Amino acid sequence: MALHCRRACRQYLLHLAHDNVDFRLPEIKALLSLRKRPFDTSETFSEKSPFWQLNGLSEDDIRRVMSRTICGKSSFELWGHGTTTDELRTSLLKYPAENMAPYLQQNSTYKINVYTFNKTLVFNNRIQKIDALDFLPFKGTVNLKDPEHIFCLLEDYGSDPNDIPEEPFHIYFGRWIADGQRELIRSYSVKKRHFIGNTSMDARLSFIMANHAKVKADDLVYDPFVGTGSLLVACSHFGAYVCGTDIDYNTIHGIGKASRKNQKWRGPDENIRANLRQYGTESLYVDVMVSDASKPVWRTNAQFDAIVTDPPYGIRESTRRTGSHKDIIKPPVDFSGESHVPVSMAYHLSDIFADLLNFAAHHLVLGGRLVYWLPIYRPEYCEEMVPLHPCLTLISNCEQTLSSHTSRRLITMEKTKEPEDSDRLSHLADPRFTPYQGHNSFREKYFSGLTKKNRKDAKATPRNKE
């Protein structure tokens, strides 16, 4: 019982990257949820801080989280912490000696790193801080190249680069456990991708989306606006079977003009399947097909464990759907299936998101997640503008700023009930479920903002005298 208590009472420290700050908490919560573990932090928890103390977890839980997280940089078994060196010393001396003992043996090797957030220390200062830890009973041999155990002293100097204090706000010391998956940002970079397009999602955000969706091995994941398949690549990395649709025939089949610099036309093997083959996950590729997201082509029963997508906003990709405003559409006289180009019409953002949420409500398994991007005009944005559905519960809403006047929000929703006939009526009657009509003019506002910015920049730039 005492042993169990000691293990349960251990604290762990997450050191998080200081980019995409809005996305960190939903990602860590989602990864813990996959382990059925709660997100339990200290009373002094600050979401904006790069250091989070977690309670009630095992080392295996931490390792599993770090094996997937993109926002997390490193994790530690926290041995002590404080706002001053004296508080840190007191805290370390209170830490159970039996918990330290396995890592301080005489026949072991170790090293101590010093990490400072928002401040750079010279080498001698780092050595002084390490020497100040001589009260700890290290018995092993220092090995800087390949130690058995790594310890770290972490100091937090706040997040304001223009007001760096002399002394840190908080100091932590602990045993390193594992690093996050930041390397995936480089190894999956779209610059190295075999097949890319104008709107290919970058690797960092693709993996974050997959984590928010709680994608796991053997899941079936669907992207209704698949494009060049960046999101399928990320989801397949975690062992999910992937499929998608898109209205753009050329993109699906990998033909037409190339998006890569210094390349005029796409090659014969530039397609989504080739992207998954590049990363060794071709066996998880179900298929993609040309399809209009506004038209029902799937059976009505639930099929997908997750829907992860980036709908078009009308900026670099048009928002079109098949159809016409005419009452009767006559096929051309020389109609033959292969050469027929269907008539298309505008697909308003409000309709795109209403259709997407309705599709998710009918085709996600219970507990499955929908993760998608919602473009917004910042001066007019309020949380009530986020589309809702009676069968879907909003889990998180994270902002990525695009400009001073526009941004997009990563929306994560979870299916919590099966659709009923009454849901259709409540969807029409309840103002909370009003479609996203307020931003149907997002494209016009986006370019209007760019025009105003260019005019302002032009006025601010002095002209050369002739």
Overview of the molecule:
The chain is of the alpha/beta class and 466 residues long. The chain folds into two domains: 170 residues, 2-Layer Sandwich (VC0802-like), CATH 3.30.2130; 233 residues, Rossmann fold (3-Layer(aba) Sandwich), CATH 3.40.50. The chain contains 14 helices and 16 strands. The strands form three sheets. It has a seven-stranded mixed sheet with strand order 2-1-3-7-6-4-5. A seven-stranded mixed sheet has the order 10-9-8-11-14-16-15. Strands 12-13 form a two-stranded antiparallel ribbon. Helix 2 crosses helix 8 and helix 8 crosses helix 9. The termini are far apart. The N terminus is likely disordered.
Task: Record keyword descriptors for this entry.
16 strands, Rossmann fold, VC0802-like, 2 domains, alpha/beta
Task: Please write out the topology.
Layout: H1 2-8, E1 11-16, H2 21-34, E2 51-54, H3 59-66, E3 72-82, H4 85-94, H5 97-100, E4 109-117, H6 123-131, E5 141-142, E6 149-156, E7 170-179, H7 183-187, H8 203-212, E8 220-223, H9 230-237, E9 241-246, H10 249-253, H11 272-278, E10 285-290, E11 304-309, E12 320-322, E13 344-346, H12 349-363, E14 364-377, E15 392-401, E16 406-415, H13 421-429, H14 442-460
Parallel strand pairs: 4-5, 4-6, 8-9, 8-11, 9-10, 11-14
Antiparallel strand pairs: 1-2, 1-3, 3-7, 6-7, 12-13, 14-16, 15-16
Helix pairs in contact: 2-8, 8-9
* Oligomeric state of the chains present here: single chain
What CATH architecture of the largest domain do you see?
3-Layer(aba) Sandwich
Helical content class: 25-40%
Main β-sheet, in a few words? Answer: 7 strands, mixed
Mean of residue pLDDT values = 87
Report the top-level CATH class of the largest domain.
Answer: Alpha Beta
String of helices and strands: HEHEHEHHEHEEEHHEHEHHEEEEHEEEHH
Strand content: 15-25%
Number of helices: 14
Number of domains: 2
How far is the first residue's CA from the last residue's CA? 86 Å
Biased composition (Basic and acidic residues): 414-430, 457-466
Subunit structure: Part of the heterodimeric TRMT11-TRM112 methyltransferase complex; this complex forms an active tRNA methyltransferase, where TRMT112 acts as an activator of the catalytic subunit TRMT11.
Subcellular location: Cytoplasm
Domain Ribosomal RNA large subunit methyltransferase K/L-like methyltransferase: 192-322
